[in-house]
Amino acid sequence: MYNKGTIITGLIIFVVLVTSPIWYNGLKAGPLPKPELPPGGEQQCVRPADEMRDKHMVLLNEWRDDVLREGGRMTITVGGKEYRKGLQMACMECHSNKEKFCDTCHDYTSVKPYCWECHLAPAEAASKKKETL
Amino acid sequence: MDKQRRKFLKIAGATALAGVSAPAVVKLTSSPSFASSGQGAAADSHSTAKDAGGAQHDVGKKSIRYGMVIDMRKVYGKPELMQKAVDACHTVHNVPDFDKPENEIKWIWTMPFENVFPEHSSYHTSKITEDNEFFALCNHCDNPPCVRVCPTKATFKIEENGIVAMDYHRCIGCRFCMMGCPYGARSFNWFNPRDHIKVYNPDFATRTRGVVEKCNFCAERLPLGKEPACVEALKESGALVFGDLNDPDSEVRQLLDENPTIQRKPALGTKPSIFYIV
Q1: Would you call B45 helix, strand, or coil by DSSP?
Q2: Considering only alpha carbons, which residue of chain A is nearest residue B198?
Q3: A119 touches chain B (CB under 8 A)
Q4: H/E element holding A83?
């Protein structure tokens, strides 16, 4: 093998550079996010918490297609309270703080869902209320 | 060798001819369906003159077909009343208000008679049509051209109720539907609409830059037992009446029975669900 020293040194430098974020953070992925539980004290979600953690985006897509295409705008009853299907109308009713709930995990995992380009987070909706007219 | 080439060319020629003529043969041999579709087309062209491309074709259908009768007689000389309906709709649906007309977003709006009904010619226009503006909104056509041209199925017809709806999640902003719609009922968001919404309705989403939007016949309000926002706003005057065109007992059907109505551009065969009493 020609230029053994140069190649191997180069490879080592490359690997170290690529993995540098891991070394920089001391082999840790940072503190785990702690999404805020509903401020209103609701205990029950539309699905078990585990399932929601894994598959909330699937459920949201199902709801979207149901509501918009299949005419399935039926409400969902959880713990005696009725919710209309939808991000703005069901989820954010309880998880009223987007920054402390949605964003904590999305920031941590560097996921950038574009829900909020159209859907109004409670704080955003409250920023332009009827009274301001 | 030569002989073989001749043979090959003959076979190739025969095959090509068979391939080209196959569709014609198939069409001719399946004559029953061919004949009936021909009859249907003829019947269509006869009846369009009679009922203005209208709902009568669908009377036999079981499903709901939502439609609206706009009784213009009740709002003549009352532009503020018409504006009330427009404002009600635009507030409920977070419709932005752009200053420049070329950026305008509109779900329901008003226009002069000759713009709403460009196909209606008259030797001498009446004072009423000259002095008044007329309502225009998505016609929720039975045969919607916007749906046919949409490449992503972002706009579609809900078969259960006849509403031409949109899924803004899927809209890529190609604006084919705006070309397709003969009524100008669709608007494109050239800019972020949020900066131009005065009051948010927290129960409805906004749109984002780069999508097309239009009237949805208040598909989100109907399941809650509410009427469309514009109808509700003009409830006292009774100028806008909403209901099931397929239900013989509905108020819209009774209005259609009692009054001669006109539609926008009936000759295009889009079969609008909006009827005007002028």
Answers
A1: helix
A2: A128
A3: yes
A4: strand A81-83
A126 vs A96, A98, B168, B200, CA distance in Å? 11, 13, 23, 8
Q: Which residues of A touch B92 (CB under 8 A)?
A: none
Q: Distance of CA A28 to CAs A18, A53, A68, A106, Å? A: 16, 22, 43, 18
**Residue at B199: amino acid letter:** V
Interface mutation target, options A85, A128, A131, A133, chain B, most CBs of B under 10 Å: A128
Please give the class, per CATH, of domain B55-277: alpha beta
Using CB atoms, which residue from B158, B205, B220 is nearest to A118?
B205
What ipTM was predicted for this assembly?
Answer: 0.79
Q: Is residue A71 part of a domain?
A: yes
Residues B16-26 pLDDT 10s: 999 999 988 88
Question: How far does A59 lie from chain B, in Å, by closest CA?
Answer: 15
Domain range spanning residue A92? Answer: 31-132
Q: Are A46 and A83 within 8 A, CB to CB?
A: yes
Q: Decide: helix, strand or coil at residue A88.
A: helix
A113-133 pLDDT, tens digit per residue, is 999 999 999 998 888 876 544
